[in-house]
Amino acid sequence: MNIETLQSLFLQRFGGEGVLYTSPGRINLIGEHTDYNGGFVFPGAIDKGIYACIALNGTDRVRAYSADYDEFCEFGLREEDKPAEAWARYIFGVCREIQKRGYAVQGFDTCFYGDVPLGAGMSSSAALESTFAFALNDLLALGIDKFELARIGQSTEHNYCGVKCGIMDQFASLFGKAGHLMRLNCATMEYEYFPFNPKGYKVVLLDTVVKHELASSAYNKRRESCENACRHIAARHPEVQYLSDADMAMLEEVRDEISDEDFLRAEYVIGEKQRVLDVCEALERGDYETVGEKMYGTHHGMSKLYEVSCEELDFLNDVAKECGVTGSRVMGGGFGGCTINLVKEELYDTFIATAKELFTARFHHSPKIYDVIISDGSRKI
Ligand code: GLA
Prior knowledge:
about 375 residues, single chain, Ribosomal Protein S5, domain 2, binds alpha-D-galactopyranose
């Protein structure tokens, strides 16, 4: 599929021309599960995204065709019109969230496809939400700023898809800039672009191609643990609004008041906050060894304290370590998906070959390999 085919699909199905929009998936160098804790994240948009052809249709109904699933869905714009198809709920949710903010949404026709691998931790769902939020804002001249468009995508996840996610994925998709990572403070929404072109290194994703069941409920449970730990700390330290505002000493004070599980989750989040800051500093010095060391630190925390890794991801992380890869860790929410790896160019081929061979011998399917190209955010094509 490409955008020319998409346009002819649109013409065949709806007769006429639509406008093309795209929004990308994302990587995250470091700062995982910190967004909903008011911490820092460090993502960048990638060269894989969702592409949609859209035109207003003069009715109050949406007619949507998913080229990837070869499925068509038509729905209205009232709360009770929620479609049964999971993919259509993202589009419906975006429309509803725009309406809830006081804007009028009109019916439209759309065909879309994507090349962000599903369930790989590269945020295909945020790419879908951002595409439609950005497109409707533009087509209907609503004048909503990009922060609010990101919140519209996030509320779609919360209210229509059952994931109590943070703001990182939608932010990265909408604000992405080629060649740059973004450090976002999720408490204040202040952000900064960092040029990212690690000379002599490559960034590569190794996709386990597994996505474990119940990932959304496990994700929501992590969030509850963090909020619980934060409540206990805030009772003694009212200045603590988010868990990321706390330090280890504060967490120690409430050790006996919270479960061991909640303690471990909070310990990870507090450690991760410092790792993001250390990585940003190291990047400014061109010190990739430190960047890599912190990435391994994150993997360890996500695996042993936050417990969102899995056998396949831990295996890939071990292989990276044994091959001498500079940095490696599970990326995104976890429970399957990818590792992100910072690898010296001269080691790249050996690493990929070894990882493929060992992984396939162990799990009987090959991992998928994606070279990372940091690209622009949401746009009209
Ligand atoms: C998912 C969520 C994000 C973020 C990451 C973990 O991608 O959508 O908000 O919490 O997990 O960092």
